[in-house]
Amino acid sequence: xxxxxxxxxxxxxxxxxxxxxxxxxxxxxxxxxxxxxxYPGVLPLLRxxxxxxxxxxxxxxxxxxxxxxxxxxxxxxxxDFDATKIVRARAAAAHRxxxxxAFDTADLSLGVPAHRGSVSILDMLQYLPEPLQSNVVSGAxxxxxxxxxxxxxxxxxxxxxxxxITDVVDRIGHRIGWMRSAxxxxxxxxxxxxxLESAGLEVAWQSHLGRNVYNNWLVSARRPD
Length: 225
Prior knowledge:
Elements: H1 7-12, H2 24-35, H3 38-46, E1 53-56, H4 62-69, E2 76-80, H5 83-95, E3 101-105, E4 118-122, H6 130-143, E5 149-155, H7 161-175, H8 189-198, E6 202-207, E7 216-222
Parallel strand pairs: 1-2, 1-4, 2-3, 4-5
Antiparallel strand pairs: 5-7, 6-7
């Protein structure tokens, strides 16, 4: 994992002195940052991007911590449907004094929040029904200014064993209460590619398996200058 991602320091930001036995978010953050290739994969794409970043489905806000830990200074706003996660995200960001970072609740079924800059959609599309997936991606594309980037990490719908394992793990996440929704449908590569390329974006796909068994892919779509 990247040396610029301090999983221990970030995880400690989610400890709450008033609830010393509540260590779930701290343990989750430490495991996620230490073992998932998500953030080391996303970091090179966004670290030097000067455009304001809108993080759709931000969860507890780990991307903000990773970016600031790597020296990135672009304004960051994370939104999520889960109000409890937003509360924890705000508290952890305040604990580490993250500059120019904000979090808010948002229902993406009502549209993508107004934004001009770059956008990230990480491990979230599969929890939306197919029509809403398209609306969210289209809304994210509309936010991009010249030189800005849309970064997506998602599982894909295919017939592979990895795809079936990914679906099982995501459903477990819903059952234990981490995700408020069960996975609806994984995007299809050809559909995403068509949407991004028809919008005139420069698109790059990267298999994002790491040392795990999930069917994850990293997509970078940049609007030319």
